[in-house]
Amino acid sequence: MQTLVKASGGKVVRSPVKEIGFRDPENNRFIVNLTEEGKRDPLFAGLDHTFDVFQLHGETVELTQEMALLATGEYCENQVVKIGSNAYGIQCHFELTPEMFEIWINEDPDLLTLNKGKLRTDFESTKVECAQVGRRLLQKLPEDCRILSIPPSSINSNPSPSD
Q1: More confident residue, 85 or 70
Q2: Is residue 155's pLDDT more than 80?
Q3: Which of 47, 61, 63, 117 is the most exposed place for a label (fewest CB within 10 A)?
Q4: Among the residues of 24-115, which ranges form H helices?
Q5: What beta strand segments (E) does the chain contain?
């Protein structure tokens, strides 16, 4: 998200709070809420308006007037932005897989400061929802803004808990 916003005239700045893992500084789950504009955006059609998310960043962005804010968080307000008709920036990690998660918790300096057992417990409780939302978002991205080329037939719409 930071690269997209900066390339489009916005700014990347230090976040007031580093968002690391699944829980905020008060031990509550990181939650992302769709804005009214986000609820109307085709990318999020048919999805819940609130998501438990995994975060791993110490920066946030300052938007220009041309940018639409589609989702917010409590500590880092700008969580999902849209620029123009087909460019989306997402702060949280809907793409998190079990393999990515294990690598990150064993290598990322910020995650190394957290309790791995608690991180794994939180991941287990959200991995199915995260995988479902991530797949739905990839399926719904307009063809002209997809970075990855994923044939729709290869995206499992009903992931098993081991996904």
Answers
A1: 70
A2: no
A3: 117
A4: 36-40, 98-107
A5: 11-21, 31-34, 50-52, 55-62, 67-73, 78-83, 87-90
CA dist 23 and 31 (Å) reads: 9
List domains and CATH numbers for the chain. Answer: 2-154 (3.40.50.880)
Tens digits of per-residue pLDDT, 14-70?
999 999 999 999 999 999 999 999 999 999 988 899 999 999 999 999 999 999 999
CA distances from residue 131 to 18, 81, 100, 161 in whole angstroms, order as listed = 24, 21, 12, 9
Q: Which of 93, 153, 156 is nearest to 127 (CA)?
A: 93
How much helix, strand and coil, in percent to the nearest 5, is found in the chain?
Answer: 35, 30, 35
